[in-house]
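Schema walk-through. Below, the input block comes first and the output block second. Nothing else is stored per chain. Lengths vary across the set, and this one has 204 residues.
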Amino acid sequence: MDGIKNLLIDFGGVIINLTRNRCIEAFAQLGVDVHEQLGSIYHHKDLFMHLEIGELSPAAFRDGIRQRSNRILTDKEIDDAWIAMLADVPDYKLDLLLRLKEEYNTFLLSNTNSIHWEWAKQNIFNYKGHRVDDFFHKIYLSYELHLEKPNPEIFEYVLNDAGISPHETLFIDDAAVNCKAAEALGIRTYTPEPREDWSFLFER
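--- output ---
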């Protein structure tokens, strides 16, 4: 951590635990096979990808799911299946984020979508009286930027917007391909394993 002043932290798989299989099964119960689209941590495809880079509205996404199903599906049924990917965040990680914000410039950088993010704001970051903005100095989301990792442009945008140096920045992400893209720009990286406690990085 020598020389590190800034932290870029991923959301899914780093802060929140993910349950892709539960999500795939939930969609299967709605008559929609999404295994090919969601089976990899590295890239979502078609409908899901367009949702996560903001090219598709939640309403258009839901309509796309309906077209794949042979059933009449409500918005809630579709959203619940999609949100089934999001599991839990251990309290110690939320406490850690609050502490890290006092010691570093902390930024969230996530490939995510408005359905997941609105749920997370209400159910994950509503913690001990805090709101999501209490955990980070700034939040960068793929669906708002119309860019996603590992596209180098999203890292370049964050570095320029935040006014930070890549050599003073640590990026924590669960996808090796995202870390490799960041490293090419001079950003230091760490790739945790699923459900790993990566707080040891900040032990004195």
